[in-house]
Request: fold
Amino acid sequence: MNLPKAYDPGAYEADIYALWERSEAFVAHPDSKKEHFSISMPPPNETGTLSIGHSLFLTLQDIMARHARQRGKDVLWLPGTDHAAMAVNAIIEKKLTDEGTNKHEVGREVFLERTREFVAASRGTMLGQMRAMGASADWSRLRYTLDESLSWAVQEVFIKMYNDGLIYRGNRIVNWDPNLETNVSDEEVEYKEEQATFYTFQYGPFQIGTARPETKFGDKYVVMHPDDERYAQYKHGDTFEAEWLNGKVTATVIKDEAVDPAFGTGVMTITPWHDHTDFEIAERHGLEKQQIIDFHGKLLPIAGDFAGMSIAEARPKIAALLEEKGLLISRDEKYVHSIAVNERGKGVIEPQIRLQWFVDVNKQAVEWKGKTLSFKEVLQSVVREGDIKIIPERFEKIYFSWIDNLRDWCVSRQIWWGHRIPAWYRTDADGQVETFVGAVPPADEAEGWREWEQDPDTLDTWFSSALWTWSTLIDPELARDASLSLAEVLAGSPDYQAYHPTTVLETGWDIIFFWVARMILSTTYATGTVPFKDVYLHGMVRAEDGKKMSKSRPESIIDPLTVIPQYGTDALRMALVMGVSPGNDQNWSTGKIEANRNFCNKLWNVARYIEGIVGDDFSREKSEAVSVADHWVLSKLQQIQQGMVNDLDAYRFGEAYDKLYHFIWDDVADWYIEASKAAPNKPLLAHVLESVLLLAHPFAPFVTETIWQTLKWEGDSLLATKQLTKPLGFDAKQAATFGEIQNIVSESRFVLTALKVSGITLYYTAVPFITENAETIKRMARLQAVTEVEDGTGLFLTSTNARCWLDIDQGTAQAYLKELNAKRERQAAVIAQLEGRLSNDSYVKNAPKDIVAQTRQQLGEAQELLASLEREYDRFNTTA
RNA sequence: GGGCGCUUAGCUCAGUUGGCUAGAGCAUCUCGUUUACACCGAGAGGGUCGGGGGUUCGAAUCCCUCAGCGCCCACCA
Reply:
């Protein structure tokens, strides 16, 4: 016997993974005639180590990839990592701060060098950990968002969009993070509640409220709703004098519907430079905008004595100044509002007007399916028309409502780590600026102009990850040939031709806007095809208490790298799949991981038992059903295999897992193996084991491959590259007969346990299948003997139509009477229900035929059962 | 303010287009040292599927409504 008593995952996992990799089991073959199946792995940020969330997506995608291989497909699961501009940038800046320096002191080149060192180190760690999860990715095609060919694609798309008028540069209000000194997109901003002081000040004839007195230096407009009757006497454009922070100012009345008359006094002053709503009001009315706060979060000279102060320092002092001037009306210390912070680094956002690059989402200049549409329209079209299906469907609604509110996408970032914008500027002596967008600046040297300088900004990380499904499939050699267009490079790239559009995108619902929508936007535009056909969205893994795992509660974080050595990777994978449904969050559970560690051991011992019976060297060609148990297990196997295939095709991972679990544990281990012990059918046991290993393999690749490698039934073949077994034929009647045996065994067990008796004989009247399986029944029900009689006495079995009695004296069986009676009543109720259903004409007329036939059959069976219950009850009642 | 989701056994959750007597894991109780497995086996208890109404032959499933919880988006002068 080769298999030790208990499965010890740590002893095999690393070797098994190395074996797969050495055998190139996961390498894709674009020239293969097989149907292609492709998934792009969402590239994890190279910021450190694998989280439980990574474990979840690696598991789900791995199940899909392995299952597709088992179905005879050529599979590409393309792995990669993301340069994660903002996140990595934040880490490096923190490191520099800790060293007592900053990015300005070290300069761009040193900063980038430091960053490269950091990501190179963390990438190796990440990739090792992805392998530890068992990810069957094609590592020969590993990509990185900053690879040459991917960067080339980024540049091409930017330039193409610019030339098509879909990218523009403009002064717009952006979410500025003074900490990281960059803007961030609307999606990267999160809000948190804060308690602050809400001041009401006198401003000319009006009272205005604010929580931010420090922004008020430039105020010269008051805005109110046009329908607000309290201020009907003031007309749009009226001016008035007001005493204010820097002395007397002349202010103008503006009427705008953005003002909520019910909030505060219904009047407000505006700060267009530092507030989104105010900016829009100012744009509508052509008002002046003035910067009050600089890009480091300090007040500008307009603040007079307060210039150079931070916001936090200046705020109370400015309020005090206004109070001195007698302009403070009231102060509410308990005011709660939300403030915007950058989700990376948590810096408080200070909106600023800056010159930035934007993707225009409303301009109709995108060719899609023969029409010229805007990005917004394409995004809507592909999901509405079914080019892309989102699972679960409810996220389609969320997707549409997001698009309805979509604003132009600001793609420039003021950080250094990332793809530098391919835009060039030069100035002449008069300060005139000329702009050029292209990979390299023009060669001309015009009289009186300085040299071309590249835009110092980089692109939003999502701009490059938006191209991920296809930029990773470009042939890097072709991308180097500057004479080729994007279309030509794609046409000449074998991987792109074979694997794009990808079959499915699997990712978390939290990045549907960041990533999924942007992939659709950029890919439809650049390639004329959708990036993927299906989108499967998984939920978050929360802590055991149902709350988010959070760095502020380190004990809440489940680290896969500590779970794996303790329970095994397969147990972790299955714990994450057990009972999940698309789009729903799940709670981490110690119970689940333990259950699956046990499940792996169960599988191990099933194999161990069968190995002990059939030996090391075995052919399954002669596998066929002999006993009724054999027929039954084959019928089950066929049913389960088909069910799992259907589930996996429909992305019902949890249900496929559930079928697998119960098939192995209940059907194979508890029934089939036990039943087979009377007369083991070696070839069939071997077939069942092989089938079970294959079905379990996508979920538990390590334990199944370990078993397969230990058995060596097929020389050096890999389970990972084997296809599902073809179903063997079976006889349905014989399979059903085993069901009868199960009934007899179950009821005997029940009675024996309930009455606390043992050493009992089962009598039966001439029933061939019992005669043939007497040994099995005796063994499984732990009976003394199974004996044929003319007419039996004792306790009559009621869950089978065969006539069987347990040899139990009537005194002992008195206790059983009660149970019998309850059973009788239950059965009568069932019959009443079924009869009611069948006596209803509209049911018989409307319900599907097979359902009605089924009901009739059930009724027949139930009546028969009740009849024998009645007989038995009467007999006991009179004789006992 | 707009939208989405959840509420099913003590706990955590499945339940595909409405159709077997509503399931699982964990927990609980009883029994068991049968040579694959105590990371085990056998058996049991436990739910009027959040409340109310409706559609239907039939509702955990569809519709309306109420309640509680969670999330997303917008706004927050």
